[in-house]
Amino acid sequence: MRQRLPLSAAVFLWAGLYAAVCIPAVFLFEAMRWPEWFIHSSQFVACLICVGTAAAHLFIARHLRPRVFGVPTRGLALAAMVLAGGYLLLIVIVLATLDFSAMD
Questions:
Q1: Cα(59)–Cα(55) distance, rounded to whole angstroms?
Q2: Whole-angstrom distance, CA of residue 77 vs CA of residue 62
Q3: DSSP per-residue string spanning 55-80
Q4: Is the dihedral of CA 90, 96, 98, 101 positive or negative?
């Protein structure tokens, strides 16, 4: 019998996939001169969801060994946390730099 994928794994996979698809969408929106605010804000929310559910999956699936296309989901969760967390850290650094540059 095939093992079912935990909900936390499905959510972080879909959120990470959406955040990754937003990257070329931003370039397309810039080229077409369409408003980009929705893509940027939804990518930020998708990264927040991805980091949270990947951390939850690492905690929940400690004893489970689910796989997606032969790849262990714990490894995917760790990679998703690092990449989405790095993106969120970059946003924080940019906002802090802008805030401190406005003081002068």
A1: 6
A2: 12
A3: HHHHHHTSS---EETTEEHHHHHHHH
A4: negative
Residue whose C-alpha is closest to residue 18's, from 80, 93, 88: 80
Residue 51 · residue 91 · CB < 8 Å? no
Buried b (16+ CB within 10 A) or exposed e, 16-53: bebbeebeebeeebeeeeeebeebeeebeebbebbbbb
Predicted confidence (pLDDT) per residue in 61-104, tens digit? 888 777 887 788 888 999 999 999 999 999 999 988 887 776 66
How does pLDDT run across 24-72, given as a tens digit for each residue? 999 999 999 999 999 999 999 999 999 999 999 999 888 877 788 778 8
Cβ–Cβ < 8 Å for 80, 16: yes
Tell me if 17 sits within 8 A of 80, measured CB to CB: no
